[in-house]
Amino acid sequence: MNKTKERRKEKRLQYHLPVWFSEDSNKTAIQGIMIDISSSAMAFSCDADENCPHPGQRLTTRFSLPHTGKNYCSDMKSFTRTGRVSRVESTIDNLCRVAVQFDEPPPFWDMPPTA
């Protein structure tokens, strides 16, 4: 059995949350579902149709993530990030898995934890 070598530099957070993506902010955004995210990249799934991104394409992504505050309650924080599609893989049920490398990390990776 072949084992794939892990190339990730940090652990990714896994979520099943909506992601909106488009080539630029003037175009209609398409919805995908987040698979995982790190400070440098995100993976999401989307329909394998004419709107599916392709490797090398520039995208603007919008997404929300839970943010735990002082009372350990979870609020959702929204983010917009630009990046480049690094990989697109076909999956089951006519879906694609898209990996996007961010131009800048989301700001919460630079913030100290809330106490």
Give the total of beta strands.
Answer: 7
CATH topology value:
Thrombin, subunit H
* Name of the CATH first level: Mainly Beta
Protein structure class: mainly beta
The CA-CA distance between the termini, in Å, is 45 Å
Q: Nearest-angstrom radius of gyration?
A: 15 Å
How would you sum up the major sheet? 6 strands, antiparallel, barrel
Unreliably modeled segments: 110-115
Q: Which range best describes the helical content: under 10%, 10-25%, 25-40%, 40-55%, 55-70% or over 70%?
A: under 10%
CATH superfamily: predicted glycosyltransferase like domains
Order of helices and strands: EEEEEEE
CATH architecture: Beta Barrel
> Averaged pLDDT, please?
84
Give the strand content. Answer: over 45%
Number of domains: 1
Strand line-up across the major sheet: 2-3-4-7-6-5
- Please report the number of helical segments: 0
Give structural attributes.
Thrombin, subunit H, mainly beta, globular, disordered C terminus, single chain, 115 residues
Q: How do the helices and strands line up, and which of them pair or pack?
A:
Elements (H helix, E strand, L loop, with lengths): L12 E2 L3 E5 L7 E8 L3 E7 L10 E11 L5 E17 L4 E8 L13
Antiparallel strand pairs: 1-3, 2-3, 2-5, 3-4, 4-7, 5-6, 6-7
Write structural notes for this entry:
This protein is mainly beta and 115 residues long. It has a single domain, classed as Thrombin, subunit H (Beta Barrel), CATH 2.40.10. The protein has a six-stranded antiparallel β-barrel. It is globular.
